[in-house]
Design brief:
The protein has 210 residues and is mainly alpha-helical. It is built from 8 helices and 2 strands. InterPro entries: Peptidase_M50B-like.
Length: 210
């Protein structure tokens, strides 16, 4: 049920709205890994066109910069797996707390007004689920959140492929990684798709086996 709802949200025109949440988590992935690798985080921006930008200060090349650039597209899939694992362990509130922690983390570093609106709206929805939602509503919402992140991660990485074919702009994460590693951007793009699709397949395996 939740997987069907999530797939509908991601595959239909509602994706434009849903993608703001996926982008929020994408940028959170960049920001968290930047901090963990010793970089200084300047800030996060979320834009009306559903794109985002995370800037940090540190060595312009090297492993820290590479993993920071690589973290964005896989972050929604990673969070989706974590939320789903908590749900399957019957830790529904902890799953919501984890999602709210990510929102709170982004709020601490957001640097534009539109981004503030996106973060506050997302946080308000999550807070309402924690304090106002009954257990059945919380369980369904957590499941939908997890599957939206997992399916949305796959779509976002596929959208990157389409965007790169149509645009001459070479500023995407895959292009940054190509410049840092001398591995073609298309290889990085395929890697994002495979990792995200693998996470989705792993999450869906119990549904198929069961």
């Amino acid at each position: 049920m939740a997987l069907v709802v999530a797939a509908t949200l991601v595959l239909l025109p509602s994706w434009r709205g849903v993608r703001h949440v996926v982008t929020l988590v994408h940028e959170a992935g960049h920001a968290l890994v930047a901090l963990l690798t010793g970089r200084r985080l300047n800030g996060i921006r979320l834009h009306r066109d559903t794109s985002g930008l995370t800037t940090s200060v540190g060595r312009p090349r090297g492993p820290g910069m590479i993993v920071t650039a690589a973290a964005g597209y896989v972050a929604p899939a990673g969070l989706g797996l974590a939320v789903l694992a908590l749900l399957r362990a019957d830790e529904i509130l902890w799953a919501l707390y984890l999602a709210l922690a990510v929102v709170g983390f982004v709020l601490a570093f957001i640097r534009n007004w539109y981004g503030v609106l996106v973060v506050l709206a997302t946080g308000a929805a999550g807070a309402a689920l924690v304090w106002r939602g009954d257990e059945d509503v919380q369980e369904l919402a957590v499941a939908v959140i997890a599957w939206v992140l997992l399916v949305g991660a796959v779509r976002a990485s596929i959208d990157l492929w389409t965007h790169r074919r149509r645009s001459r702009s070479r500023t995407s994460d895959a292009d940054v990684l190509a410049r840092l590693t001398h591995v073609p951007a298309v290889v990085w793009n395929v890697a994002f798709i495979l990792v995200c699709a693998g996470a989705l397949g792993w999450a869906a395996r119990p549904l198929v086996v069961g």
